[in-house]
Amino acid sequence: MKFVDEASIYVRAGKGGNGCLSFWREKFVAKGGPDGGDGGNGGSVVLVADEALNTLIDFRFTKKYIAESGETGLGRDMTGSKGPDLEIKVPVGTTIIDEDTGETLGDLVRDGQKLKVAQGGHHGLGNTRFKSSTNRAPRQTTKGTIGEERTLKLEMKVLADVGLLGLPNAGKSTFIRAVSSAKPKVADYPFTTLVPNLGVVKVKKHQSFVIADIPGIIEGASEGAGLGIRFLKHLVRNRILLHIVDLAPWDEITPAEAAVIAVNELHQFSPALALRDRWLVLNKIDMVPAEELEERCQSVIDALGWEGKAYRISAISGEGTEVLCLDLMTALEEQRELLAESEEAREKEKAVRTLIDEEGRNRIMSLREKRRKAGQLLDDDDFDEDDYDVEVEYVS
Q: InterPro entries attached here (predicted)?
């Protein structure tokens, strides 16, 4: 299955059925009265979150969705049938935006959650509705109204509690393999990870969290270099970011320089996202000579001006990962309790996510516009069905 996290579609609700002009005609009844029924309402367009989906690939090929119209009213006061609502399944974690106004219509974050994006037209009235003591044979009816239509932009963001941030080959995929049953591809060349990978980390019985690995970012990512800029938006929903730094980089860049590059690109993409709760993880301690380890770790801490705890791990051997996951679980539980108890905290969290969404979306749109003016296209604009032939799945 191909991984596609953005798509544009056109939706149109059904038209309401017209009212009927009819009079009762029956043998032996000299003067039958009006009996024209109302039309049926048009069907609405509704998006439904489905956890069985993990990509928007279907919307690359089917872009128009039109609900059925209501039927015209009938004689004998019979109402026309209502047009059935058109339900469109989208992945959990999909944000829906009106392309014409830029308004965010909703965010589908729970399986089965529904959002009406186009209201069906209202039914027309039959002539029965207009009879009165002074108008016993009305010939007046009304037509059904047209349904709403919109051009929508769908943005899917993977749902995870913890997101991994770092340069290519920092060991993010290896870390996911070490702490969960997810098996993303690992290799000794940059951009091994092409799409987000998700894993479920089980800390204790009935205690777990979801962790997401996105393609690494490089210097200049905010200007379109590499793959990371396309996937940074998937960190929007993460409550904690793990900044993984490679202490034994494969190229000439130093660990301190690599750490600063990642943070700078994060700030360029979204200042609000850069202010998210971020933990520092120093990886590959097993590949650094013992006499150099402290110096390399301190150089990263000094370069970032880091004041919090810095975790030292070896993802490939698992050293230090258990303590890190236990601390993550504790912090996430505390955040969940706070959000459950405090309305103010929930509103603040919602406002922060909205701001990050807007900043990230504006950054990507400005980059696309810049590339188009230069006669270039981003990879996702020049879509090929053979691209990104990777499945994204939760593995526990």
A: G_OBG, GTP-bd, GTP-bd_Obg/CgtA, GTP1-OBG_CS, GTP1_OBG_dom, GTP1_OBG_dom_sf, OBG_GTPase, P-loop_NTPase
Angle between helices 290-304 and 255-269 (to 10 degrees): 30
At 180-235, the pLDDT tens digits run 876 655 545 455 555 677 788 888 777 888 888 877 676 655 555 555 566 677 77
- Residue 251: strand, helix, or coil: coil
- Phi–psi pair at 264, nearest 5 degrees: -60, -45
The CA radius of gyration of the chain, in Å to the nearest whole number, is: 28
C-alpha to C-alpha distances, 237 to 161, 349, 382, nearest whole angstrom = 7, 10, 27
Q: Do residues 237 and 95 make contact, with C-beta atoms less than 8 angstroms apart?
A: no
Structural domains present in the chain: 6-156 (2.70.210.12), 162-374 (3.40.50.300)
| φ/ψ (deg, to 5) at 327 | -65, -40
Binding residue positions for Mg(2+): 173, 193
The Cα–Cα gap between 149 and 45 comes to: 9
Which residues carry a binding-site annotation? 166-173, 191-195, 213-216, 283-286, 314-316
Query: What's the whole-model pTM score?
Result: 0.71
Alpha helices in the chain (DSSP H): 172-179, 228-231, 255-269, 271-274, 290-304, 321-341, 343-373
**Distance in angstroms (rounded) separating the CA atoms of residues 265 and 287:** 27
Q: How far apart (Å, rounded) are the C-alpha atoms in residues 265 and 271?
A: 10
